[in-house]
Design a protein that fits this description.
Layout (H helix, E strand, L loop, with lengths): L1 E6 L5 H13 L11 E2 L9 E5 L4 E3 L5 E3 L2 H26 L3 E5 L4 E6 L2 E2 L1 H11 L10 H13 L6
Antiparallel strand pairs: 1-3, 1-6, 2-3, 4-5, 6-7, 7-8
Helix pairs in contact: 2-3
């Protein structure tokens, strides 16, 4: 599962450069993939990106395959999806741009405009948050849970 994001309109170079610079400066222990922007010929002039959110499993440096607990995977996917949506909303407000956000596997999506997340994007976040349990992916308790999960699967980035 992944989260796709595309600006609704063409973005001028200074805004694109500012967002790309801020994206590359983020220091975060991403669960699976970071915010990634790429050139899309079909979306010329727009910012287009996609982040894989669920790990499912991975190979270690020692050649061992590790299956990720589905509840841990969904929780961490929800955590990263929430962070990405917060970033998109911030850039929407700061730069006056709108985003189209989509999770294609679930067929869900919506928009972010003027820094506000619409019901469709909220539905995407809710779907991730309630995939296996109903625990929020933010707050002190959630931060502790995320730290524990990141330690449990620390060899995923080795």
């Amino acid at each position: 599962m992944s989260l796709s994001y595309l600006t609704a309109e063409k973005v001028n170079k200074s805004i694109k450069d500012a967002i790309l610079a801020e994206t590359s400066a983020v220091r975060r222990d991403w669960w699976c993939e970071s915010i990634i922007f790429f050139d899309d010929r079909k979306a010329e002039g727009k910012l287009s990106g996609d982040t894989k959110l669920m790990l499912l499993g991975y190979g270690t440096a020692k050649g061992k395959y590790v299956e990720v607990d589905p509840e841990d995977d969904a929780f961490m996917a929800s955590r990263d999806a929430s962070y990405i949506v917060e970033q998109l909303a911030k850039w929407s407000k700061v730069h006056g741009i709108s985003w189209l956000v989509e999770e294609t596997d679930m067929g869900l999506g919506g928009t972010i405009a003027d820094g506000r997340v619409d019901a469709g994007v909220e539905q995407v976040l809710h779907a991730f948050a309630t995939m296996f349990d109903d625990q929020p992916a933010s707050g002190i308790k959630a931060d502790r849970r995320a730290e524990s999960i990141l330690k449990k699967y620390a060899d995923r980035n080795a």
